[in-house]
């Protein structure tokens, strides 16, 4: 299975220009994990403002048995991602984990290798946000 990083693709090729829904399957960013995060057509491209526009902490894996391969290239940690994928229903995920609540948000992690954060969910609503540059893409 060939996966492409955010930096290997053109942004306009990632989403449908009419619906803004993702055109490709989203996978964990850790090389060798191959865990599917979401199917194509379930996540909407959004830009965040206000309290949602936060800088994600650096990625790491809590799973000692996770593949030792490196994480694929993405924007430097602690920089805001170029955009997020929004999923309004947690049941739309194929494979995602949640951290403990920290400052009114839950960080999203890969359920298999526990790499994260890949994104976040505010505790006051159910919408989840995945950083576009913290996942890889399986092209159709």
From TrEMBL:
SUPFAM superfamilies: Mss4-like. Gene3D superfamilies: Metal Binding Protein, Guanine Nucleotide Exchange Factor, Chain A. PROSITE patterns: MSS4. One of its GO terms (biological process) is protein transport. GO terms for cellular component: cytosol; membrane. Pfam families: Mss4. InterPro entries: Mss4, Mss4-like_sf, Mss4/transl-control_tumour. Keywords: Guanine-nucleotide releasing factor, Protein transport, Transport. One of its GO terms (molecular function) is zinc ion binding. This is Guanine nucleotide exchange factor MSS4-like protein. It comes from Clydaea vesicula.
């Amino acid at each position: 299975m060939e996966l492409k990083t955010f930096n290997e693709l053109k942004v306009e090729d990632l989403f449908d220009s009419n619906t803004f829904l993702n055109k490709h399957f989203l996978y964990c960013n850790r090389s060798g994990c191959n865990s599917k995060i979401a199917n194509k057509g379930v996540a909407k491209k959004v830009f965040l403002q206000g309290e949602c526009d936060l800088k994600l902490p650096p990625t790491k894996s809590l799973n000692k048995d996770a593949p030792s391969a490196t994480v694929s290239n993405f924007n430097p940690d602690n920089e805001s991602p170029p955009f997020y994928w929004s999923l309004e229903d947690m049941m739309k995920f194929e494979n995602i984990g949640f951290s403990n609540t920290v400052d009114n948000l839950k960080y999203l992690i890969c359920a298999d290798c526990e790499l994260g954060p890949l994104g976040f969910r505010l505790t006051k609503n159910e919408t989840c946000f995945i950083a576009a540059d913290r996942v890889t893409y399986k092209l159709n």
